[in-house]
UniProtKB/TrEMBL annotation:
<feature type="binding site" description="axial binding residue">
    <location>
        <position position="458"/>
    </location>
    <ligand>
        <name>heme</name>
    </ligand>
</feature>
<protein>
    <recommendedName>
        <fullName>Cytochrome P450</fullName>
    </recommendedName>
</protein>
<dbReference type="GO" id="GO:0020037">
    <property type="term" value="F:heme binding"/>
</dbReference>
<dbReference type="InterPro" id="IPR036396">
    <property type="entry name" value="Cyt_P450_sf"/>
</dbReference>
<keyword id="KW-0349">Heme</keyword>
<dbReference type="InterPro" id="IPR002401">
    <property type="entry name" value="Cyt_P450_E_grp-I"/>
</dbReference>
<dbReference type="Pfam" id="PF00067">
    <property type="entry name" value="p450"/>
</dbReference>
<comment type="similarity">
    <text>Belongs to the cytochrome P450 family.</text>
</comment>
<dbReference type="GO" id="GO:0016705">
    <property type="term" value="F:oxidoreductase activity, acting on paired donors, with incorporation or reduction of molecular oxygen"/>
</dbReference>
<dbReference type="GO" id="GO:0005506">
    <property type="term" value="F:iron ion binding"/>
</dbReference>
<keyword id="KW-0408">Iron</keyword>
<dbReference type="GO" id="GO:0004497">
    <property type="term" value="F:monooxygenase activity"/>
</dbReference>
<keyword id="KW-0560">Oxidoreductase</keyword>
<dbReference type="InterPro" id="IPR001128">
    <property type="entry name" value="Cyt_P450"/>
</dbReference>
<dbReference type="InterPro" id="IPR017972">
    <property type="entry name" value="Cyt_P450_CS"/>
</dbReference>
<keyword id="KW-0503">Monooxygenase</keyword>
<keyword id="KW-0479">Metal-binding</keyword>
Amino acid sequence: MESFYADPCFAIALASIIAIFGWRFISTRALCGSKENRIAKAFPPGPWAWPIIGNMHLLGNLPHKVFRDLSLRYGPVVGLRLGQKPAIAVCSSTLAREVLRTYDKVFANRPDFKLYDELFYPEDSGIVMTTQSSEWRTHRKICTSLFTSKRLQEMEHSRLQEVSNLLCDIVKESAQGEKQISIRSYVSRMSARLFMRLLQSESSFHAGGEDLPDLITQVEHQASWPLIGDLIPVLSWLDFWNLKRVRAVHNRVDTVLSAIIDQRLRETAKSSIVYDDLLQSLLSRLVDPNRTPENSEVDEALTIREVKGIILDVLAGGIHTTALTIEWGVAELLKHPSCLRRLRQEMDELLGDKKARLIVEDDLQKLTYLQCVIKEISRLHPVLPMLVPRMSSEECELGGYKIPAGTLTFVNAWAIGRDDNVWEKALEFRPERFEYKNIEIKGQCYELLPFGSGRRMCAGLPVAISMVGLTLANLVHCFNIELPDGQSPETVNTEEKNGISANKAVPTVILPKPRFPMDFYRSPPAAAA
């Protein structure tokens, strides 16, 4: 995924900078590059910053890797200047703990970028990119009610059914393992169907004529980097074409969400059907548009814009991230056949003579090596390498440095997961490192932060862990996953593509050989289980 620096507007911006501000090149001393400034301001050390653009040029390609390399030179917290905004990149588990726990409230806000208002829904309408406010607390409370243990147990049949559908699709499209397939597209569709069922009790994701996984990918693409004007306000006029594209994506999203909501309102108006899903939970709080939420009699009242904002955040936060984690898992297992064999052996031993059934949720906690594999995937390939950016709301001290209010803050989960000071042979895929160790991925162990931590950690963590484990286990159990002819474990590509998520540069292609008779793959999950 390309960053916004590849846009022609950036070239125009550079030309404008040279023409308008070139005379400042010699006289301006950078915030991070000047030793005197660092001492006077006690700001963390970092690379020399160009006038006007600061260190924006460092963000053009895989910034989490760039920040990790800078931390090796400047220390665990790197000071930066992105345009006119101070920024820091935290690259150690110790300082991550300070940001996400000690100063959790201070760093709980999101950057106040125009991009987020244009792409998502403004005025704290959602969950992920909203400021820390009473609205945010209400929205998060409503959303997390969908992911309680009781609720997940009630939805287990839906998850099993979607996994079963995935297996059937793979068998059909691969001609029973004779044709190679890209696993990415299949797990993306499965993830989309599942989250649509969580949302509206239906697996269809073509409401409004849109392909939801593709649309969510476009949202992610536009959210990869802020607008130029968000970092350099004086150059905001250069965002004309970027804003046009962002608004076009938002309008497509809004059309889809409006279609979903209108359909539900029509159904409930003409029938007595009682729905028990996130959409109905949100619409039950919908206020009359002629009345303000403050004057509404509805508990935790929501406007139509808030309903759409919450839905978009749930879909954008769950569909692609779950699918991407599964794809990384398949790629690493193909690259390490001994791990794949051990995982298969663990499942066969658990099932004994009853191998011809799906792995179900009750099995997952008994599959201890599977849990180690999932943790190792999360360590090496956190889907959001630098989590979601934060912004300090007040001045604080971090690692002996003074961090001013309004500082953009990146917690580099990718760098922390590959820190040689924390992990032995950190660059190797070794699930065994988690055996007999009490290290979890639920936000309490700061050396492993795929879902973040604190009040801003991912609300969908329970369903994400469940779906990754259930899907990966059944792919390994139900297929002999092989590489296409001409490929070997050594040639499996595990490079990343630039973007807000840790996308694989090359899709993972497999030959899935079915292990069981064809009737097994056409059985409903209840019968298969």
